[in-house]
């Protein structure tokens, strides 16, 4: 199953094709800025029952160095099968488009990044027929951006850097910087970045930190995630109101409550369950009847 971080690590290049020239600069490879970029079909399947798909595929045009095809793979863990599929991708794409091919692998942990960066050689000991050298971006070489001005200069790079540093102990500061950089950014630019960052963090603890930062100003962030946060807030408000109503009914009916029972009611965040308890409280004579219906 494809994970959200997997999608974000390569889809960000679809949203911001020019990002690759900045990433390549960070990685020490001189690739000129693109004059245009065209998304290409990612299906590399031939007329046989073996399906092969690259994550993101872009045709990059440059002013002085011509065109090349950029294949981007998001890699969440070591996968020995890639030693066969990656050379296939590069050979197939070169044959199909007749252009130079670059393979960029984006990772979120250093061990996977180090594994992905190893050259893949095909041939015999005396002579290597083909050697593939993936370009790898990960926490070991992407910048840690904690300066708001720096983040604003290149929001796409700041977003990718935040995603690749999802497990960094200082990820809170990284995300706070990105959030601050977005506050004065036009909505059309900010919203995709909010979503890509959330997607890239997946189910890590940092994802909740990002949600909290976004929730600080949901009037600005009108993204899907912010709508979700507002929905959660409304649900929490309904739960709190029903818990208060339930306590009032129990008190009016003379049903005594232990401290732990009161905490069970006030700590419940399920409005439907609280409604069920509230309905039972209208006729129940004991707290057990409220919770069990018996």
Largest sheet: 5 strands, mixed
The coarse overall form would be elongated
Spatially, the strands of the biggest sheet line up as: 1-2-3-4-7
Number of domains: 3
- CATH first level of the largest domain: which class? Alpha Beta
Write the element-wise H/E pattern from the N-terminal end onward: HHEEEHEHEEEHHHHHHHHH
CATH fold title of the largest domain:
Trna Endonuclease, Chain: A, domain 1
Low-confidence stretches: none
Class per helix and strand makeup: alpha/beta
Strand percent estimate: 5-15%
What is the helical fraction, as a range of percent?
A: 40-55%
Quickly give the CATH architecture of the largest domain: 3-Layer(aba) Sandwich
Number of helices: 13
How many extended strands? 7
| Radius of gyration, whole Å | 26 Å
Q: If you average the pLDDT, what whole number results?
A: 84
Distance between the termini: 43 Å
Protein name: Transposase
Description:
This is Transposase. It comes from Streptomyces sanglieri. There is one protein chain. With 294 residues, the protein is α/β, with parallel strands linked by helices. It has three domains: 4-137, 3-Layer(aba) Sandwich (Trna Endonuclease, Chain: A, domain 1); 148-221, no CATH class; 229-292, no CATH class. It has 13 helices and seven strands. It has helices at 4-15, 19-26, 82-97, 110-116, 148-153, 155-164, 171-182, 187-201, 205-215, 224-252, 259-266, 271-281, 287-292; strands at 34-39, 56-62, 66-75, 101-107, 120-124, 127-132, 135-137. The strands form two sheets. Strands 1-2-3-4-7 form a five-stranded mixed sheet, with helices on both faces.
């Amino acid at each position: 199953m494809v994970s959200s971080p997997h999608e974000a690590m390569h889809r960000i290049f679809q949203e911001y094709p020019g990002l690759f020239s900045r990433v390549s600069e960070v990685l020490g490879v001189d690739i000129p800025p693109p004059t245009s970029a065209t998304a290409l079909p990612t299906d590399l399947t031939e007329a046989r029952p073996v399906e092969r798909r690259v994550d993101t595929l872009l045709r990059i045009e440059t002013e002085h160095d011509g065109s090349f095809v950029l294949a981007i793979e998001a890699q969440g863990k070591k996968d020995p099968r890639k030693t066969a599929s990656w050379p296939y991708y590069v050979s197939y794409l070169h044959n199909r488009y007749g252009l130079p091919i670059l393979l960029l692998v984006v990772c979120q942990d250093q061990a996977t990044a180090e594994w992905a960066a190893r050259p893949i050689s095909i041939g015999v000991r005396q002579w290597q027929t083909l050697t593939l050298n993936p370009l790898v971006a990960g926490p070991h070489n992407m910048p840690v951006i904690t300066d708001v001005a720096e983040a604003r200069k290149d929001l796409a790079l700041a977003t990718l850097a935040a995603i690749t540093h999802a497990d960094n102990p200082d990820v809170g500061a990284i995300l706070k910087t990105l959030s601050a950089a977005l506050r004065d950014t036009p909505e059309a630019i900010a919203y995709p970045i909010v979503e890509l960052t959330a997607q890239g963090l997946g189910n890590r603890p940092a994802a909740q930190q990002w949600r909290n930062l976004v929730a600080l100003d949901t009037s600005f962030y009108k993204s899907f995630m912010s709508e979700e946060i507002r929905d959660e807030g409304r649900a929490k408000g309904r739960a709190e109101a029903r818990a208060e109503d339930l306590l009032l009914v129990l008190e009016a009916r003379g049903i005594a409550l232990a401290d732990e029972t009161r905490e069970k009611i006030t700590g419940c965040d399920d409005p439907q369950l609280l409604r069920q308890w509230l309905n039972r409280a209208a006729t129940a004579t004991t707290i057990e009847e409220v919770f069990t219906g018996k």
